[in-house]
Amino acid sequence: MSLTMCTLGIHGAPMRYSEVSRNIPGVSQKMLTQTLRSLERDGMVRRTVTPVSPVRVDYELTDLGRSLYALIAQVRDWAHENADAVDHARATYDKL
Amino acid sequence: MSLTMCTLGIHGAPMRYSEVSRNIPGVSQKMLTQTLRSLERDGMVRRTVTPVSPVRVDYELTDLGRSLYALIAQVRDWAHENADAVDHARATYDKL
Fold this sequence. Notes:
homodimer, alpha+beta, HTH hxlR-type domain-containing protein (chains A, B), WH-like_DNA-bd_sf (chains A, B), DNA-binding (chains A, B)
């Protein structure tokens, strides 16, 4: 869920399914489809169908989605900034 | 994990195991013990043993723990503030 939101959040513009999929290595089509549908249902993602041939479907964060993404991004950044401190704490604990 | 951090974060001072447990209805002793141990290992929680009789054991957030708790608290508050918007989006989606 958060990887999908981060993908859409980082891109900051509508993305096609294939673009989202490429940005989440190893995600199955079934899982990504379920995740996007769930995020759409929760009001986090807007799905726009453009009636051209072939039909074009785009996904983007809604305002509500962007407000949650802002927090997810802070947690992601916290994890990057503090990974060494956590590793150090684990190494110290494991020596006890 | 986040419930335990929120319990310690909200209290803002060392807590005994029984106090933490009382604040997380339904948590098993095994789960809480594992969670506290894991948080201690990750450097989020400090476990202090006071050699009195009976021995006193207290748990509190470390600075690292408090910095993560600050983000968790924001996500918790976001969820409270936006629960109605998510419910509304779900109701609208389910009518499609």
